[in-house]
Structures are given as structure tokens and as C-alpha cells.
Fold this sequence. Notes:
The N and C termini lie far apart (58 Å). The protein has one domain: CATH 2.40.50.140. The chain is globular and about 80 Å long. The chain has helices at 45-54, 89-92, and strands at 2-12, 16-17, 23-30, 38-44, 60-72, 75-87. It is mostly beta strands. Strands 1, 2, 3, 4, 5 and 6 form a six-stranded antiparallel β-sheet that branches. The protein contains two helices and six strands, in the order ββββαββα.
Amino acid sequence: MSYQLKGTIVHKGELMTFKNDFKKVEIVVETKGKYPQKVKLEALKDNAVKVDGQLQVGCILDLMFDVKGNEYNGKYYNNLVMYKWEDITEDLAVDIPQQETIEEETIESGEELPF
């Protein structure tokens, strides 16, 4: 089963290499909304190399992931494994106009402030 998530990378771990040239990298993505969440995901094998080379903290992603579960010595573990993503940082970049300077109005002596 596949799931989708959109958020900003707030942490990217180091590329780890294990036996048989197996590679893994972990990232943490912060979602938006009323209750933002920080979600840890991992990329494996070739995807780990792509994540390490292409993505950095601050990138906004629209990503797809699977939930993987396994048992080890009677304990159960879950991992969120990302397999497809799109960097939408550029799509969301908006030119913010420079703020106009507001000139302070001079208040004549004896005039009361409205607050």
C-alpha cells in the first residue's frame, strides 16, 4: 500500500553503507497544517544515493512512501520507506514584494492616542 506526504525537509542524515553495498539515508519532513508533524522517513539502495545527492534541508517535497514492518526477537518495528518524490520548492517560491516604508504621522501635542 502506498501513502503520500507533503512537507519540508528539516533534517537529513548521512548516507550509511552496510554489508553487500546496501545504502540507507534518513530524512525528517515537517508537515504543515493545524497540527504540524515531524515524520522520519528512509530511502534505501539507489534512492538513498539520489536523496543524498539531490535533496537538502529546506527542500519542499511531495513524496510517496510505503509502510514496512518486521519482527525481531519478539519485538515489532515499522519503517516509512520513501520511493518516489518531487521537489516542489521552486513551484511554491513566490516573489514577495518589498514592504513599503510607512511614514510615521506626527501627532500634535495635546492630541490623544487612539489606544
